[in-house]
Write a structure and sequence with these properties.
Blueprint (H helix, E strand, L loop, with lengths): L1 H35 L1 E3 L2 E2 L2 E3 L6 E3 L3 E3 L4 E4 L4 E4 L5 E3 L2 E5 L6 E5 L9 E4 L8 E4 L1 E4 L2 E2 L11 E4 L4 E4 L2 E3 L2 E2 L6 E4 L5 E2 L2 E3 L2 E4 L3 E4 L4 E3 L2 E3 L2 E4 L3 E4 L4 E3 L2 E3 L2 E5 L3 E3 L2 E4 L2 E3 L2 E2 L7 E9 L2 E3 L2 E2 L6 E9 L2 E3 L2 E6 L3 E8 L2 E3 L2 E4 L3 E3 L7 E4 L2 E3 L2 E4 L3 E3 L5 E4 L2 E3 L2 E4 L3 E3 L4 E3 L2 E3 L2 E4 L3 E3 L13 E3 L2 E3 L2 E4 L3 E3 L6 E3 L2 E3 L2 E2 L6 E3 L7 E3 L2 E2 L17 E2 L8 E3 L14 E4 L54 E3 L6 E5 L4 E6 L5 E7 L3 E5 L6 E9 L2 E9 L1
Parallel strand pairs: 1-4, 2-5, 3-6, 4-7, 5-8, 6-9, 7-10, 8-11, 9-12, 10-13, 11-15, 12-16, 13-17, 14-18, 15-19, 16-20, 17-21, 19-23, 20-24, 21-25, 22-26, 23-27, 24-28, 25-29, 26-30, 27-31, 28-32, 29-33, 30-34, 31-35, 32-35, 33-36, 34-37, 35-38, 36-39, 37-40, 38-41, 39-42, 40-43, 41-44, ...
Antiparallel strand pairs: 68-69, 70-71, 71-74, 72-73, 72-75, 75-76
């Protein structure tokens, strides 16, 4: 028993010794860690900062002097103890790794530190480099220029590389919460720039800088102007960025830019609460190959607000301008080959363009679909803008005025498909003109458009108000539906007298609703014949697009070779096929291409008219019993007979010289042919 007791005491004493040794080791380890901290006083720094000396506690403004270099190793933490600046007049090399970054932070996260300052740094020094760094809680405040560039301030210095860095929670009282570039030209690539704030350019501000901004994720930044990026007087290339969840008080939730190239970005969930451009504000430049979605602005440009920019090949969807114009796009320039859908605004759900002084606005080859607005569900033209609007699909849009288009300007619309839109007034098109405007009457032109299967309470195809006098050439207005008190075409005021030349208009001029006024417009060489689309929508309005409608013409369509034989027309149709294929231009957005692939290739010859041209009598054959009508170019039936035979002879001697439509309605359907009376 005694032996056991002595053995137990011996073991207990040994365990106590081991515990004391472990405590001593821990104390030594902690002491060594504390002692490895390096305090840096105000002054010049150079040489190398290593992990063994980390963290580096900065206790005043510091500078890398001209012709000197500071190198910082991976894993180092630089901790500023106050609102101090890091001036660079020489060179800094801060290259971390993907798994071991370099951290620049601050002891007091509320007050922050004053960021890196490259101000006229001599370019005799080699490039400064920041790779795999974290720059946190920078704060640019005070008098200019100290109030610019929360994390980085570059003025007249272009030898820098910033890549694969994380720049977050920085702020500037004025420009560039994350980065400020003035007359500085270098690449900013593959960075994450988040939760930064400024008055202009929450994430990045650029002025007179030719930098490439490529492959960055720019999100949750906050600004009065340009939540993600604000660029002015610049030639940046901004590519492959992910720009998300930015916020701006006024303009440019995502980007506010001058002449730049913005491409391959995902710009989404940005917002402005007082101004323009939920996703992008761009004075001029190129915006291409981006996804711009779920952005919002209080006033104009939910997705994009731009000046004379080129906006091409973007997907622009689910943006909104809650109290203004241009849910998808607001502005001018060349807007082409975009898919613009599910946007909303007060005016111009898809696109709003304006300003009669800008004559180079082009809206081409876009698909503008499922947008919503109070005026102009798909497209709205205001302030007497002059533009070319061509080769667009404007479909399934909804509005009170102008389901497809609301027009108060003088654009040239050509080769557009305007179909399955819905509105209270003007299912396809609503035209108005300010009675007191200095610009005078609005006279847009519509050439070779297909305006079909739209729906409205008043004016399924067209509603004209005030002094609006649109002119239509070679266009189809067919299959549009309306309320019982409306009409396919409504001319609201006495001053509205649109002109129609060589169009196919369902019901002709007699189907116009003139609101007890008189129509004195020009109505020449128009027809009233089913255009025989290859595969139209299953019905009219926004809910009846059907499966991939095809608005091209069957071979037996009377619209083929029925357009203006001497007029000016587009070189190609909406599909890019050449005009003219055959004797003369067709009516509608598509030019019939006789390639043997059309439906019912021989039906066109079923209705035979002989002789043709004719003076006194014609013989019609190739029909079953039914009704034959002769219709003049104003859409009026001037002669009708009922026949029980496969042939019929009709006296046309009393008809005026001109062009007529022969329409035969039988049990097998309706067929057409053309008659020339000499």
């Amino acid at each position: 028993m005694c032996l056991f007791k002595n053995f137990k005491n011996s073991i207990m004493k040994r365990n106590v010794s081991i515990r004391l040794a472990l405590i001593f080791i821990v104390l030594i380890f902690n002491y060594s860690n504390v002692s490895s901290q390096t305090n840096i006083a105000k002054g010049y720094v150079s040489g190398k900062w290593t992990v063994s000396g980390s963290p580096y506690q900065i206790n005043g403004n510091i500078m890398v002097a001209n012709n000197t270099t500071l190198t910082i190793d991976p894993g180092v933490t630089v901790n500023f103890q106050g609102l101090y600046k890091f001036y660079v007049q020489g060179r800094i090399v801060a290259i971390g790794t993907q798994t071991d970054s370099i951290v620049f932070t601050v002891a007091d996260k509320i007050y922050g530190w004053s960021g890196f300052r490259f101000d006229h740094t001599p370019e005799t020094n080699d490039s400064s480099m920041f790779k795999y760094c974290k720059i946190l809680y920078g704060n640019a405040t005070g008098e200019a220029p100290n109030d610019n560039g929360g994390a980085f301030y570059f003025s007249y210095f272009s030898k820098a590389v910033i890549t694969n860095c994380y720049i977050a929670n920085c702020k500037a009282s004025n420009f560039g919460g994350g980065l400020y570039l003035q007359n500085s030209h270098f690449d900013i690539t593959s960075n994450t720039i988040v939760k930064n704030t400024a008055a202009w350019g929450g994430g990045i501000y650029c002025s007179n800088s030719k930098s490439n901004i490529t492959g960055n994720a720019i999100s949750n930044n906050n600004s009065d102007w340009g939540g993600g990026i604000y660029c002015e007087n610049t030639y940046q290339e901004i590519t492959k960025n992910i720009v998300t969840y930015n916020y701006a008080k006024n303009a440019g939730g995502g980007m506010d830019c001058g002449p730049v190239l913005i491409s391959n970005n995902d710009i989404s969930h940005n917002s402005v609460i007082q101004g323009y451009g939920g996703g992008v504000v761009c004075g001029s430049g190129i915006i291409r190959d981006n996804t711009i979605s779920f952005n919002s602005s209080y006033v104009n440009g939910g997705g994009i607000s731009c000046g004379a920019a080129t906006v091409t090949n973007n997907e622009i969807f689910d943006n909104s301008a809650s109290m203004g114009a241009g849910g998808g796009i607001y502005g001018n320039g060349e807007i082409s080959s975009n898919t613009i859908f599910n946007n909303e605004a007060i005016n111009g759900g898809g696109i709003y363009f304006l300003d009669g002084t800008i004559i180079n606005t082009k809206i081409n080859n876009n698909k503008i679909e499922n947008n919503t607005a109070y005026r102009g569900g798909g497209v709205s033209c205001e302030s007497y803008a002059t533009a070319i609007v061509a080769n667009n699909e404007i479909i399934n849009n909804l509005s009170t005025y102008g389901g497809g288009i609301s027009n108060d300007g003088n654009p040239a619309y050509s080769n557009n498909i305007i179909s399955n839109n819905s509105a209270y007034d003007g299912g396809g098109i609503y035209c108005k003109s300010d009675l007191y405007s200095a610009y005078g009457t609005s006279i847009p032109t519509f050439t070779n458009n297909t305006i079909s299967y739209n729906d409205a309470k008043h004016g399924g195809a067209l509603y004209c108000n005030d002094h609006s006098d649109p002119v239509f050439y070679n266009s189809i207005l067919w299959g549009n539906t309306l309320d019982s008190i409306g009409a396919q075409i409504v001319l609201r005021t006495e001053e509205c007298d649109p002109d129609f030349y060589y169009c196919d208009i369902q019901g002709g001029v007699e189907a116009f609703n003139l609101n007890d006024n008189f129509y004195i417009g020009i109505y020449e060489n128009n027809i009233n014949a089913d255009p025989l689309f290859v595969s139209p929508s299953d019905s009219s309005g926004i809910n009846h697009t059907g499966v991939a409608p095809d608005w091209s013409l069957k071979i037996n369509s009377f619209c083929i070779n029925a357009g203006n034989p001497t007029g000016t027309y587009p070189a190609t149709d909406i599909a890019g096929n050449p005009r003219v294929f055959g004797n003369r231009i067709d009516i509608g957005a598509y030019e019939f291409q006789d390639n043997g692939s059309s439906i019912e290739p021989k039906v066109r010859e079923a209705l035979i008219v002989y002789p043709n041209p004719a003076q006194d009598k014609i013989e019609i054959s190739g029909i079953d019993k039914g009704i034959i009508e002769i219709i003049n170019m104003r859409g009026q039936i001037v002669k009708a007979i009922h026949t029980e035979n496969t042939k019929a002879t009709i006296d046309i001697s009393e008809l005026p010289v001109g062009v007529y439509v022969i329409k035969a309605t039988t049990d097998k359907g309706v067929v057409f042919n053309k008659l020339i009376k000499q």
